[in-house]
Specification:
Structural class: mainly alpha
Strand order of the largest sheet: 1-2
Distance between the termini: 13 Å
Keywords: Cell membrane, Membrane, Plasmid, Transmembrane, Transmembrane helix, Transport
Subcellular location: Cell membrane
Helix content: over 70%
Oligomer: single chain
Number of domains: 1
Pfam family, one: FecCD
Radius of gyration: 20 Å
Family: Belongs to the binding-protein-dependent transport system permease family. FecCD subfamily.
Shape: globular
CATH superfamily: ABC transporter involved in vitamin B12 uptake, BtuC
Membrane topology: Multi-pass membrane protein
Number of strands: 2
CATH architecture: Orthogonal Bundle
CATH topology: ABC transporter involved in vitamin B12 uptake, BtuC
């Protein structure tokens, strides 16, 4: 376990990197804005810059950068809790069907409401797709939990198998949505599935900020019981931990977090899978330290990958989900070879 001073030092260093990366993210794009102009505009809300640059910073790039930080942190801590809950270093929220359910929900919204997209574009982009994605995540998690629970309690193994079944069913539904969609619907579904933060708004920033605050408070308060759960359910129960109640709470919070994140950004993979490994390399498996460190690492990684997605094919924009997969998959394979047997 890290000493308090060591944890504080790591968090300060990571927060500094996040701040610098965030200002850099605000600076890059089709319209070049200097690092210092971006910093002064955000720090002082200065009106010395031309109006169009001021508008680009505060209405487009700043909300997007903040959303990167928040979504990255949410996905990272949800992945951390999922791996601890299932005691499996290869687990992620998608393993219980959350991501697949959210993906199906968003696709249904795109197909159902596409005919209103011309007259009411905000209904699709701001309300319908996020709402249906969130509901899809909650419904998928509810089914998985019900299938894995009986009078004797909740079986992690059954929930894992149920997650595979729900994921398969969700992708079948998604395939049907793709089949009946027209060209524009299919393009919208594909782009949303690949993940993008281009639709960031202050409303989505506030929603994710409130969600992240709730998750950090609840996960931190349950860090010690989750540490006990790593020893095994029987051992945790002997220590007085209400195991079934804890699992229900953590699964619900994870579903809420991933549902909100996917609803505003689309499908972004590997954040919840890789970041917990990096966090354990820094601080070990103690969730009291691992949760805040994972939040910082997730925020940093998604901000960097979003910068890459906006610059590698500029002025075109590469979906951020593709970038996270291209970075995450090889890096995760490397971690498996270097850290196998040492993760927990």
């Amino acid at each position: 376990m890290l000493r308090h001073t060591s944890l504080s030092s790591i968090l300060i260093v990571l927060s500094s990197f996040i701040l610098l990366t965030a200002v850099g993210s605000i600076s890059v794009g089709p319209m070049n804005i200097s690092f210092m102009d971006s910093l002064m505009s955000v720090a002082t809300h200065s009106n010395q810059l031309p109006d169009h640059i001021h508008m680009v910073i505060h209405e487009i790039r700043l909300p997007r950068t903040l959303l990167c930080i928040l979504v990255g942190a949410i996905l990272a801590i949800c992945g951390t809790i999922t791996q601890g809950l299932f005691r499996n270093p290869l687990a992620e929220p998608g393993i219980i069907g959350v991501s697949a359910g959210a993906s199906l929900g968003g696709a249904i919204a795109i197909v159902l409401f596409s005919e209103y997209n011309t007259d009411y574009p905000n209904v699709i982009n701001i309300i319908a797709v996020p709402l249906f994605a969130f509901l899809g995540a909650i419904v998928a998690t509810g089914f998985v939990y019900r299938l894995g629970t009986n009078k004797l309690g909740t079986s992690v193994t059954i929930m894992l198998l149920a997650g595979v079944a729900i994921t398969t069913l969700s992708f079948a539904g998604l395939g049907y949505m793709n089949f009946i969609a027209n060209d524009q619907m299919l393009r919208d579904i594909s782009l949303w599935q690949m993940g993008s933060l281009a639709g960031a708004s202050w409303t989505s920033v506030l929603l994710c900020a409130a969600t992240l605050f709730l998750l950090l408070v609840c996960f931190t308060r349950n860090a010690m019981p989750l540490n006990a759960l790593l020893l095994g359910e029987a051992e945790a129960a002997h220590l007085g931990i209400p195991v079934q109640k804890l699992k229900r709470l953590l699964m619900l919070l994870t579903a809420i977090g991933v549902g909100v994140a996917v609803s505003v950004s689309g499908m972004i993979g590997f954040i919840g899978l890789i970041i917990p490994h990096l966090g354990r390399m820094l601080c070990g498996p103690d969730h009291r330290s691992l949760v805040p460190i994972s939040a910082c690492l997730g925020a940093l990684l998604l901000t960097v990958t979003d910068m890459i997605s906006r610059t590698v094919l500029a002025p075109a924009e590469l979906p951020v989900g593709i970038v996270t997969a291209m970075i995450g998959a090889p890096f995760f394979i490397y971690l498996l070879f270097q850290q196998r047997g040492k993760i927990f």
